[in-house]
Every structure is written in C-alpha cells, then in structure tokens.
Amino acid sequence: MSLLPSLSPGPVGLLRELAGMPVTFARLAAGLSGLTNASPRGDGHMVLVLPGFTATDHTTLPMRHYLEDLGYRTSGWNLGWNLGITPDDELKLEQLIADLADEHGPITIVGWSLGGVYAREAARRRPELVRAVVTMGTPIRGREGTEWIVRWFRLLNPAAADDLTPEGAERHAQPLPMPMTAIWSPRDGVVSGPACRVREEDEGPLAHNVRVDAAHLGMGFDLGVLRALSEALAATAAVAAA
What we know:
Elements: H1 11-38, E1 46-50, H2 61-70, E2 73-75, H3 87-104, E3 107-112, H4 114-125, E4 130-136, H5 147-156, H6 166-173, E5 180-184, E6 207-211, H7 223-241
C-alpha cells in the first residue's frame, strides 16, 4: 500500500509533495543499488534527458547515473533552467539532438513534465533522429489540470507560450511516429495524472501508458518510475533490434 496521500493538482498538492521529498530521497538511497541489479540492461544507445519546469540538468543526474549504470549513454539538455523554450533554445535543442544522433545513431529522448512536451515536439520535427520518446508526468491530452502552472509559465517566459495555446495543445496531443511511453501517476500533485496519458484511441504498438505510484516532483528519484523507465527503454531497444 502506498504511503503517499491522494493529491489534487495545485499549490496545495505542490506543497504536500515538497514535504514528502525527504522520504523519496531516503528510499532512493536505500534501494537504488538493488534496483540497478534487478533492472534490464541497456544496449548502449544515447538517451537525452530533459528536465521539468523551473528545473535544470542537476535534477536529472540521479536518473542519468542510473541509466549509465545499466549501460546507456546519457546527456542533459545543456540549456540551463527550463523556464520554457524560446525559438533560439528550440534551435539549440534540435542541434544537440542532431549532434548526438550523428555521433551515436538515433537517440531516445526522456522528458520530465514540461521537458516531455519539448521531447515530443522535437521528435515530431526530426523523427529520423529519434528512435523513442518517454515522458514522465507530462500533460499530453491538453492542459487540463495545469491552468495554475500556465499562469506562472506565462509570467516567467511569455515568449515560450505558443505551446500553451489551444492550437499548441492539440498539436502536442497528436501521436508520434516512433515508440512512445507515457509514465503517469494518479497521485500527481502538480499535473492531472490522467492528462499525462496518451489517448485511448492512440494506444497501440507505438504508444502505451505506464501507471506508477509517485509524486510529480519525485518522479526522477522514485524507484518505481526508474524501473518503469528502464523497462520502457529495454522494450524500445527490442523493437530497434528487430
């Protein structure tokens, strides 16, 4: 049974998640070694990890170290704080993806929260460079349950607000041409969990949802999420090798 309370997305949910983070970190420290030993091994391909809103590459270090211990190569996005991508940053991210793919072959992009929005859109623009996408707590079906975050987003970076329009949200919800895994939690206290799933009509060989029991802020440090991520990467590796 989960020790996490049921949370409604919003400021209260955010505060309750923050209060629970020490428990998440303690569980990670105690269980990471055993999880690494029990997880499927990687095939050595490159995994680019994009951080969530108001976060940097530092927040994805434990996730990337875990993936490297499994045998993958990893990279952060190298764009500093994720306050929303500007047109210039979008070009820089696309160039990074091209450089990584040129050196290592088609890559997987993992995006946490808002990072998943940019992971999906980058993969949509350059499908020849991306072999799979994994999102974690990323709103896919629209922006339901994120209205309170959108207000912050518009204040911090009005130039990056295109993805927040109805047209941008509808574009983002469209299926991708490569394997896509959406990791979501019904206990997400920041974003509506159901909004982080691919639509039922889009589920199939190239798109599926994985339910976890995790807080939004803790997804990159949660043992269950890390295990789901490793399994998603192993599944896409099997597809690539077929």
